[in-house]
Design goal:
heterodimer, A: mainly beta, 6-stranded mixed β-sheet, 5-stranded antiparallel β-sheet, globular, B: mainly beta, 7-stranded mixed β-sheet
Chain lengths: 114, 112
């Protein structure tokens, strides 16, 4: 059974710092991996999607890497800003028939202090 | 505007009452999903539907029911059998055959 773990559960950094969020998964047979952002009381916003054949994806100050063989992904945030404060969720996609099922980690809650 | 809408934003349930959460999408997506999120935890899959008039149980389906009579709508009923319904409920949709899911804004269910 696929399990996704995110470490740390919470992180507090000063503004301007570069930081790394970690995600690990137990079964390397994934279709893709997604990183989401969730603001308090809101839905999820997709940040980056990495296909299983890819090693990394970049969007602005965000860079996500994927190492299937070791079952790990990292989300790198450069030059963090207070507006980056949110919960970041990692999820892997496993297919059952024609339906991709997302399996989520518990999330890392990030606070960036001005 | 294309997207997924959920209503209401907040919902209150009395003891022994069934309540229904609405989820509508105009993205022409075939697949739709319902998740439950508890504080400090990730999302857990309740039910999903790949096509109209078909749906499958997820990991925590007990105490919930769904219907998929129209492609754009996937309502979730929280029945009185669900003993711990207080949570944040998220609906999502995806094109058939793709893993990417798009999420609605969520409904917070509280028990009176």
């Amino acid at each position: 059974k696929q399990e996704v773990t995110q470490i740390p559960a919470a992180l507090s950094v000063p503004e301007g710092e570069n930081l790394v969020l970690n995600c690990s998964f137990t079964d390397s047979a994934i279709y893709n991996l997604q990183w989401f952002r969730q603001d308090p009381g809101k839905g999820l916003t997709s940040l980056l999607l990495i296909q299983s054949s890819q090693r990394e994806q970049t969007s602005g100050r965000l860079n996500a890497s994927l190492d299937k063989s070791s079952g790990r992904s990292t989300l790198y945030i450069a030059a963090s800003q207070p507006g980056d404060s949110a919960t970041y969720l990692c999820a892997v996609v496993a297919f059952s028939g024609n339906t991709g099922k997302l399996i989520f980690g518990q999330g890392t809650t990030l606070q960036v202090k001005p | 505007d294309g997207g997924i809408t959920q209503s209401p934003k907040y919902l209150f349930r009395k003891e022994g009452q069934n309540v229904t959460l609405s989820c509508e999408q105009n993205l022409n997506h075939d697949a739709m999903y319902w998740y439950r999120q508890d504080p400090g935890q990730g999302l857990r899959l309740i039910y999903y539907s790949q096509i109209v008039n078909d749906f499958q149980k997820g990991d925590i389906a007990e105490g919930y029911s769904v219907s998929r009579e129209k492609k754009e709508s996937f309502p979730l009923t929280v029945t009185s059998a669900q003993k711990n319904p207080t949570a944040f409920y998220l609906c999502a949709s995806s094109p058939q055959g793709q893993g990417t899911q798009y999420f609605g804004p969520g409904t917070r269910l509280l028990v009176l």
